[in-house]
Amino acid sequence: MISHKSRCGVLAAFPLAALLGLIGCSGVAATQVESTLASNGSADDHMAAATLYQSKAEQLAAEADRYEAEASKIGPHEDPKGYRRGGLTTVAREKRNAAGHMQELYVVHLEKALTMYGMKKPE
Asked: How far is CA 70 from CA 8, 50, 65, in A?
C-alpha cells in the first residue's frame, strides 16, 4: 500500500520532470565545431560556424522570451509561493546565458572569417 505522502511526492515530481523536458539539451556541440575549425578551418568554415552560432543565439533568445512571457502570465493566486514563476524565470535566465555564449562564439568566428577573407586586419 502506498502512503499518501509518497503519492504526493510522486505527483510533485511531475511538474519538475515536465519543466526539465521543456528545457531539453538543445545546445550546439560547440567543442566539436571548435576542434574541427581549429585544426583546418577555412574562411568559409568560420563563416558557416558564425551563421550557425548566430541562428542558435536567436533561437535561444526567443525561447527565453517565451519562458519570461509564460512566467509573467502566472498570477499570485495561481502560484502563491512562486515556484512555477521562479522555475520559468530560472529557465529563461539559463537560455539567455546560453544565447550570450552563442553570440560570443558568433563574433569570434565572424572576425576570424573576415580576417581570412582579408576584409579585416588581424589584431
From this structure: 25, 30, 9
Backbone angles phi and psi of 81, in degrees to 5? -95, -10
pTM here is 0.67
Rounded CA separation 80/113 (Å): 51
* The amino acid at 109: H
In this predicted structure, the answer to whether residue 86 has a pLDDT above a threshold of 70 is yes
Please say whether the beta carbons of 39 and 45 come within 8 A: no
**Residue 123 falls inside a structural domain:** no
Task: Please state, in angstroms and rounded to a whole number, the distance separating the CA atoms of residues 92 and 64.
Answer: 4
**pLDDT for 17:** 41
96 in any annotated domain? yes
pLDDT of residue 120: 72
Helices (H) and strands (E) in the chain, counts: 4, 0
Count of domains observed in the chain: 1
Amino acid at 45: D
Domain membership flag for residue 4: no
Instruction: Give the domain range for residue 106.
Output: 25-117
